[in-house]
Amino acid sequence: MTSSFSSSTCHTSKENLPSLLGALNADVLKEFFHRCADKLCGRKGPVYEKFSSSCAWSESQFTQAVSGVEAFLVDCMVHNYDRKKVEDVIPLHESLINAVMNIIVVRGDELQKYLLSLCQSGPAEALRDYDWKVKMVKGSSSLFSLEQTLLELDLTTEKRTSSLWCKTEEHQTGRIRVELTPDNVSALINTLERALDSL
Amino acid sequence: MDEVDKIIIRSLKEIGCDIDEELDSLRQFSPELVVEAASRCVEAIQPGSGIPTSLPPSMSMRFRIGASIAQACMDMGYTGEVGYQTFLYSNEADLRRVLMFLIEKLPKEGQTEKIVQEPSSRAARLQKDISATILKQLSAPWVPSFCKEDGIRWHDDGSFTVEGGKCFNFASEPLQTGNTSHGCTPQEWREYCVHYLPLVSDQVSAANRLVPSLITLNSRGILSPSQQLSTQKAGELRKLRSDLLQEEYGKFLSADVAQKLSETSVKLGSRFALNERLQFLSEKSPEKKKQPIQEIVPTEAVSETSEERQRRQEEEEEHAVEMLKNENEELKERLEQLQLDIKTLSAKLPQVLEERDLAERTLQEAEVKQAVRKKVLDLLPDADTNVAKLQAVIEASTKKLINLATQWEEHRAPLLQQYRNARQLNSSKASESARQAEALRITREKVAELTEDLRNKEALHSHLQAEYAKVSKDISRSAYTRRIMEIIGNISKQKNEIEKILKDTKELHKEINTLAGRLDRSFTVADEVIFRDAKRDDVSRRAYKLLATLHSECSELVKMVEETGACVRESRDLEDQIETESAKNVGANFERISADLRQMKQETASLAAQLKTKPV
């Protein structure tokens, strides 16, 4: 299912994956897989400069390997691969397979949780973060003393345009900025609390 | 004079002089202390005068300091006699006069300190601070942005304000700190955390996201504390999540595909179109690639002229482009056709599904009917016995039903009772909790009220303390006033006495005058009478002579008495003078002055020696 919907680069890189990964030793492989899992979980991914010394990849091979491993990890999580299936997909030396299995066990929970959250947010715009500032308006050109308190609320939203599973820089971040008076703020909080209760 | 000295010492202590508690009179002041007191007074009256408060060892410097203090006093309008000797070789009375003058000149507290009513509430203080900061920023001159590092602008008084500068958005990223629950053995997890988990500072993509990410992580941890699950439970949870993930993934993909299909533009970004295109390309490309190669090979063999070759090549290329275009058109048409088909088919799909559901339902109904009919037909041949059997069965089932109903009732009654009891208990509990919630609310309100009260009281307390600090000074003031009133009373009493004495003296004078007049008159009369008789009588002549001598002797006597009085007065004056001179303790001062002079001579000599030894 995945392979038919992944983009073509993933498709080809996955075929090359065994030959690319076969050249690594178990420690470097572990490190590489962990960094790819980090990238899937929304953190900083692997950096070519770090791996260029320990592996003989060119930069394009490196990118291929990254996307291939990502697609592989997604498949693992979705279809709950066991050891045999992993061996089928990437036929490697036993020590390397052990390393891969270890990573799947260790990072499984985290990856599952993150992928689920991605699925549930869907293709629509979703709130990712928020920031706030309190402002005090001392006066205006017409009023000497206004003394109005305002809350500036910044909502950072994220919208994934396509290909969620092969994460290339394809999510757009947006920013919604609103200024609220104390009454607005309490109304907003009440609405959110009601929404939370109804869940 | 003790009273005056005490006032002076107190005032000097207030302006910061380090005066020993035991000292209570100006007589006990050392020259160092005198100089310190005077210079502090001058500094308080004229800030920035720059007179040192301690005496240096060098004698000439000491004289200079003394002279400068004296000059400052004269500049301030001191009319009495003042010089370096007043401070260095002090005598009590002069010193007292100078210090009293200086203390009178000291700035009064009431003049410098305006009584400012501190705003009590925090909001008011905040607003005041904001106003002050804005005022400061507005009054400060403009400074280019490159002079303000990170938008921070330093003011002269050491404070700073933020003007502009870079301000990062609060954007967080998910962090892994290694303490969340996990589905593997502790050893594996430990190995991951020790060897492969990067530091949180390396996990974020930009340094300015670290703090927001940590704040978000902490608040998430507070909102939903992670719990350590047993391995079995964790496994179950994992399985559940995996199933859910599969399901969601399927949904997501179908949604994604539907979205792509709805985009009717001929964009080849759609995955279906992309796949198809790839498929067709792979089918056609081998032929396409072979064709030109086959054609190119013979041309080279014939070895035509280069122009012709080029022309032919161009023609071939054009031909190939034409073919590709045609192909492209075809593909496009086919794609559109296919998309249309997909659309019509997907539109039809729900209808067809519905029809199928309907058909299945009717089929099931018909099957049920058919089964009943078949049973009836089976029973029909031996109708009577079967009817009897059926009736028996019916009776048995009725009995069973009744039996069951009674049993049900038996069970139902206690259960119902139990249910009612439980409901009552529940409602009582609910009312109890409502009451407690109400009590809690009341307590909270009370707490808020008390806090407000406490804040008010604290504000009042600080206010009263400030007032108390002011009042404590007033106590000495009232003491002074009382003392002044006493002194005034004493003075008026003394004045009365003096007036009385003056009156007595005047009366005495008058009496003396009258007595002297009478004496003169009686002497003149006596003189005339005796002189008249003296012309004729010898005895009278002798008496006259005796009278004349008596008179001259007596007047001499009176003169002597007057002279004695003058002498006594003079001696008293002299005694006073001696007293004042001795108060100046000239002897000691003279010794000190001569010692200082010797020291100065030594200093001068050493300086001269230095000057000589110094090569020109």
UniProtKB/TrEMBL annotation, chain A:
Which Pfam families does the record cross-reference, listed alphabetically? COMM_domain, COMMD8_HN
Annotated COMM domain ranges read 126-199
Classify the source by domain of life: Eukaryota
Per its record, how is this protein called by name?
A: COMM domain-containing protein
Q: What is the taxonomic lineage of the source species?
A: Eukaryota, Metazoa, Ecdysozoa, Arthropoda, Hexapoda
UniProtKB/TrEMBL annotation, chain B:
Report the GO molecular function annotations.
Answer: cullin family protein binding
Which UniProt keywords are given for this protein, alphabetically ordered? Coiled coil
Domain CCDC22 coiled-coil: from-to ranges: 251-584
- UniProt biased composition (Basic and acidic residues): 306-316
Instruction: Give the GO biological process terms.
Output: positive regulation of ubiquitin-dependent protein catabolic process
Q: Per the database record, which ranges form the CCDC22 N-terminal domain? A: 1-107
Q: Name one Pfam family in it.
A: CCDC22_CC
Instruction: Family membership, please give it.
Output: Belongs to the CCDC22 family.
What's the name of the protein? Answer: Coiled-coil domain-containing protein 22 homolog
